[in-house]
Amino acid sequence: MQTDSDAQQRAVPCLLMRGGTSRGPFFAESDLPADTKQRDAVLLAALGSPDRRQIDGLGGAHPLTSKAGIVRPSATPGVDLDFLFAQLQPDSDKVDTTPNCGNMLAAVLPFAIERGLVPAQDPVTSARILTLNTGMQCDVTVQTPGGRLRYSGDTRIDGVPGSAAPVKINFLDTAGSVCPSMLPSGRVLDQVAFTTPDGVAHAITATLIDNGMPMVLVRAADFGIAGRESVAELNGNRALKQKLEALRLACGPLMGLGDVATKNYPKMCLLSAPAAGGAIATRCFIPHVCHEAIGVLAAVTVATACVLEGSVAQGLAQAGGGLQRTLSVEHPSGEFSVELELDARDRQKIVRAALLRTARPIMRGEVLIPAAIFNEKEP
After folding, report:
1. Structure pTM?
2. Closest residue by Cα to residue 87 from 73, 101, 74, 71
3. Nearest one of 144, 139, 142, 123 to 79, comparing CA atoms
4. pLDDT band (50, 70, 90) for residue 7
């Protein structure tokens, strides 16, 4: 028997999942409205945006916990699953499905197995996943002994407490995920002129790069900081954040992204020499809040810059040699190791990027959405 409360809200099946160092609800595409505007309204209601605290939804009042995943069986030959990543912000009513998210990607195959979209094999299950945001494909492998998902294990990733079973991700094509190419300006190094809100003109040396995530890489020292400051200290540095945002806006057109004032990319990253035996130290902004760790594809992109001759990372990075390299990217809560393989004929080209993440479901059930959202008609 339907109650008045049932009529006022609609239940949408979802799994709240952690993928890497991110978290958000995952949905089967068939459970969401086909209309994009209605779908986005459902996602905003599910997360509780726009509201700084996201008190009326599942969001965690932070960009890393204001994300959602939408999954469907793929119709593309050779591909098992399609994944659409949605980035929301606590205090914004925008839903951005332009960039990728490698952390949330780690939860796609576990979600698909949980929902019966992909059958579990023994002892592991692999699937090729197409990220609809950018057309990027990757092969993902999870442990499924006896045909059952295993979440417990010994794999540790910095930024997540405890350990879990590994999720292996092998990216097949990350170059130019959103930008026209990996080096969208056509150069490995740019001198970017910009003006801060106080009217002061500046020029900063930067590497504008997209090997999975559009990023502006700069030396921390060029901003008068060490690059080892705490997240709280950097988030409290208003002058620094204003300068980074002015630079970001200037870089948008240079990267073929146009006006990026309302976009979640490019991400900004301050580089410094490694402090804990890694290849490079980072402080990333996503794009206006300092990341407590580093995103998966951001780490791939930073690691790529470390092996490119003449990039802004040269002189800071300890990148090693050879065609196959494992680079440890240091971040505020630890490190992130990325495996890169360089092209034997062109060492400015990356042919493979791989890494380990972990994932697990946190809650299985239904999120309640105001029924009025589903009843709204297009004009």
Report:
1. 0.80
2. 101
3. 139
4. confident
State which amino acid sits at residue 231. V
Give Rg (Cα) of the chain. Answer: 21
Given a cut of 80, whether residue 1 has pLDDT beyond it is no
Is 327 exposed, middle or buried, given 0-12, 13-18 or 19+ CB atoms closer than 10 A? Answer: buried
Q: Could you tell me the fold of the domain covering 4-117+361-375?
A: Diaminopimelate Epimerase; Chain A, domain 1 (3.10.310)
**pLDDT tens-digit series, residues 9-22:** 999 999 999 999 99
* DSSP label at residue 33: -
CA 175 to CA 375: how far, in whole Å? 41
pLDDT at 5: 57
Task: Indicate the domain borders of the chain.
Answer: 4-117+361-375, 190-354
The span from the CA of 134 to the CA of 114, in Å, is 25
| Whole-number Å distance between alpha carbons of 12 and 22 | 21
**4-117+361-375 and 190-354, same CATH topology:** yes
> Is residue 217 a contact partner of residue 306, using CB atoms and an 8 Å limit?
no
68 has a pLDDT exceeding 60:
yes
Fold topology of 190-354: Diaminopimelate Epimerase; Chain A, domain 1 (3.10.310)
d(CA 72, CA 81): 6
Q: Count the residues in the chain.
A: 379
Residue whose entry in the numeric block shows the structure tokens 């030396």: 219
Residues in a beta bridge with 70 = 27, 84
Partner residues linked to 327 by β-bridges = 338
